Amino acid sequence: MKYILFLLIGGLMLGQEIPTEAIVDSMLVVMTPENARGLSRQINKTSSGAVRTLEYEYYSDKGGEDVLMRYTKPNKVKGTAFLMTHHADDIWVYFPRTRRTRKLASHAKKQKVQGSDFAYEDFAGGKTWKDDYTHRRLPDEKPDEYKLEFVPKPEISSSYSKMVLTLGKNDFFPKVIQYYNEKGVHEKTLYLQDIKIIEGYPTAMTMVMHDELDGTETRMETLEMTYSVSFPEGFFSEGNLKK
Prior knowledge:
single chain; mainly beta; outer membrane lipoprotein receptor (LolB), chain A; 13-stranded antiparallel sheet; 45% strand; globular
């Protein structure tokens, strides 16, 4: 990863034009580490200003292909867990009160997670974006930023008709992602802030998802994060949701 970025940043310093394909490849490298384990705080804010705060453990494998989230706070949701496999094509939810696990329908990937403005598919990572989306570079609005447009291919199921990303030219990491719904309306905007380098990867310590239509907002604060982690066989399984 560092070698790829060295070559690309070197090209920038020499004033060379970087191909769009190389920009996309570099972005996917820095935003989809192979494995991750973290702890996050989720702050949901309604349009009326009411606030609800939760915390959850986050586990990701294969560049976001498999994701497990388990809520730890408050007590009302403690133990509630979500498992997303195959980039959120398959989703299971565990409810500790009933001690039951339920598999959600395929269209559930478009639903919001625990009252937030994040949909299940937003947690699926971007590893497949190059194959599942057509992409093109848009005119730069600032000299230190790239703008890219991603449109899902016809065979891909997505609640978004397109995504527009703003990347930093210094690290190829997204700063802003604009989501457009199936009608082509700008529905949500994700702001990735307080970027820190953790184990060689740019990491957004704060992510703010703003719903442009409803006026709601969700703030995700990274409390802990590591990418130097591996998971035992069966970790991302229905059976592990109950632990």
